[in-house]
Amino acid sequence: MSKNLVIIPTYNEKENVEKMIRKVFSLEKPFHLLIVEDNSPDGTADIVKRLMKEFPDKLHILERKGKLGLGTAYIAGFNWALERDYEAVCEMDCDFSHNPDDLLKLFGAIENGADVAVGSRYITGINVVNWPLGRVLMSYFASMYVRIVTGMDVRDTTAGFVCWKREVLETIDLDKIKLIGYGFQIEMKFTAHKFGFTIKEVSIVFTDRQEGTSKMSGGIFNEALWGVLKMKLNSFTRKYERND
Ligand SMILES: Nc1nc2c(ncn2[C@@H]2O[C@H](COP(=O)(O)OP(=O)(O)O[C@H]3O[C@H](CO)[C@@H](O)[C@H](O)[C@@H]3O)[C@@H](O)[C@H]2O)c(=O)[nH]1
C-alpha cells in the first residue's frame, strides 16, 4: 500500500475531477487519493465512483450529505487517513490551481525531515497566475496580517496545498480546529507551529482555475479576519504539549 495519501475536497467539480484523478495516478510516485464529496448537484460523485472501478484500492470516496465547507471536509479526510496506515497526507484543490506535479516536491520535503510542507506562493515574490490584482493583494496582505498576529514565520499562511506528516495530524487534536474556510488553513498551520513542528515552505505557482467556480465567499474572508484574532487569544490558555 502507498504510504502517501492525497485528499481532494470536491463540490461541483465535474469539469475537473476525472482529469485530476488521472493526472495524480500518472505521476511517477504511487499515491492513494481520497475525494471528500459533499453531494455535488452536478454529479461529481458519479464520475468518481465510475473511476473507482478502474483504480480499485487506490481511489476512495468519502461522501457527506451536503456542502459542509472545505475545513470540515479536510478534517473528515484526515480522520479517515488516521484510521489507516498513511504516513503523510497532502491537501490539494481539484481545479488545477495547484499543479499535481508539485506533489512530488511536497511529499519530498516531508521525506527530507519537514513535519509540514506548505506549497507557498509567496517565498519567491508573488507566484499567482490569472487572479485579479485585488485578490492577489488581499491574499498577500492577509498572509502578512496573519504573520504579524500569530508570530509564525510562514509567508503563505492561507495556502491550501499542504502536506502533513501523520504525527502532526495525530497530535494537534483535529476536534479543536474551529475555522472552516481560509481560516482553517491558518488555524491548522498555527496549531502545528505551537506544538513545535517544523514547517517548510516549498515554492509553487498557483494558477487560477480554468473550469468551474470558486466556492469561497465574503463570509469566509471575515471568518479568517476575526477568527485569527480569536485563535491567537485562545492560544494563551491552551497547553501545547507533545507526548514524545
Ligand atoms: N467537499 C467540499 N469541497 C469544497 C467545499 N468548498 C470548496 N470545496 C473544494 O475545495 C477546493 C477549493 O475550492 P475553491 O472554492 O476553488 O477555493 P479557492 O477560493 O480557490 O481557495 C483556495 O485557495 C485558498 C488560498 O488562496 C486556500 O485557502 C483554500 O484552501 C483553497 O486552496 C475545490 O476542490 C472545491 O471543489 C465544500 O464545502 N465541500
UniProtKB/TrEMBL annotation:
<keyword id="KW-0328">Glycosyltransferase</keyword>
<protein>
    <submittedName>
        <fullName>Polyprenol monophosphomannose synthase</fullName>
    </submittedName>
</protein>
<feature type="domain" description="Glycosyltransferase 2-like">
    <location>
        <begin position="6"/>
        <end position="166"/>
    </location>
</feature>
<comment type="similarity">
    <text>Belongs to the glycosyltransferase 2 family.</text>
</comment>
<dbReference type="GO" id="GO:0009247">
    <property type="term" value="P:glycolipid biosynthetic process"/>
</dbReference>
<dbReference type="InterPro" id="IPR039528">
    <property type="entry name" value="DPM1-like"/>
</dbReference>
<dbReference type="InterPro" id="IPR029044">
    <property type="entry name" value="Nucleotide-diphossugar_trans"/>
</dbReference>
<dbReference type="GO" id="GO:0004582">
    <property type="term" value="F:dolichyl-phosphate beta-D-mannosyltransferase activity"/>
</dbReference>
<dbReference type="Pfam" id="PF00535">
    <property type="entry name" value="Glycos_transf_2"/>
</dbReference>
<dbReference type="GO" id="GO:0016020">
    <property type="term" value="C:membrane"/>
</dbReference>
<keyword id="KW-0808">Transferase</keyword>
<dbReference type="InterPro" id="IPR001173">
    <property type="entry name" value="Glyco_trans_2-like"/>
</dbReference>
